[in-house]
Design goal:
2 copies of one chain form a homodimer.
Chain A: H1 3-11, H2 28-40, H3 44-55, E1 60-61, H4 72-84, E2 88-93, E3 96-101, H5 107-121
Antiparallel strand pairs in A: 1-3, 2-3
Helix pairs in contact in A: 1-2, 1-5, 3-4
Chain lengths: ~120, ~120
């Protein structure tokens, strides 16, 4: 199970809405799962790669996302980090690997941000 | 101007809604500003500190957020990172420093997540 999948499972449980447990704030397990996915998005190159893949709305050939200003091995490294976090997935077909953004993977992160925004502005 | 303030300013400009510029995805400057704020939230201890401060809905004495499982100097280090990113601010009063979550600082991040979620599910 990827980090994003764990986060989605956790967010669907009823205890502590959106991982924010009253005045105590986030629990240790929730903070660890959520921080891991934020970390995947905490690099400008990874964020541009993710954005490029998501922006297609479908599959993207790795051959079309090599122009983000870093070497091909670095692109591969960042794509692996995004995949390990459960934000993207891929499939090899012949010479090329095709990537897509995993639907729903950003939802739990958005819920955490929304829950905290509501706490701040209440 | 903090990173979160730069991000809020950028997000209010009309070009490229939410920093997602069509099929090209995020621009380099947008990805750098956004990744910097994600990075501030990409650590479990920082996330719990931020959550604890936000959960009060007001000010939190630093004396009340020392029990996150790390040493006091490490707490101070993480609070500085959150402050540098523009997510929290503080004021010293006598012996103690009081922290609060900056209203609106999470908004641009939430917009980026929402914009990409819409791209993926369209």
């Amino acid at each position: 199970m990827t980090t994003a999948e764990q986060l989605a499972t956790r967010s669907s449980t009823p205890a502590c809405d959106d991982g924010v447990c009253g005045a105590a704030g986030m629990t240790v397990p929730d903070s660890e799962r959520t921080a891991a996915v934020f970390k995947a998005l905490a690099d400008p190159v990874r964020l541009r790669l993710y954005s490029r893949i998501a922006a297609t709305g479908g599959e993207t050939c790795v051959c079309d996302i090599q122009d983000v200003g870093v070497s091909q091995p670095t692109v591969s490294h960042h794509l692996r980090k995004l995949r390990d976090a459960g934000l993207i997935d891929c499939e090899r077909r012949g010479t090329w690997v095709y990537y897509w953004a995993v639907p729903g993977a950003l939802g739990p992160l958005a819920s955490v941000l929304d829950a905290h925004t509501q706490l701040i502005t209440r």
